[in-house]
Amino acid sequence: MSLKSKLKIESVGMFAAFVFYAIVGIICFAALPITNFPPHIGIIGILSLITAYGLFKKRVWTIWIVVILFFIATTFSAFMLYYTFGQNILFNVIVSAYFILTWIFTAYTAAKRKILES
Question: pTM for this structure?
Fold first, then answer.
């Protein structure tokens, strides 16, 4: 039995979105103690893990959390890029990748929202 059939993966793109949001949630929770527990990183982590669960279980309400997370992540990423640009190149690359991937997976999830309704 293949991994794809065990996980009941119908769309590779939705699975990639699930993995992205799960990894972001885990990284946010891992970064909390390092950054002195700022609430916005905790909120992004919680919403990312809820989104990953919703994508995995194909829940209809997931699209709303994706949209909410899109605005929060875009604001957070733009703020971090604006205020730390040029100080730490590696951090800027990571935040830029997060910014771009958030836009990509939000657009993909919105375009394929019919998968969540089945």
Answer: 0.89
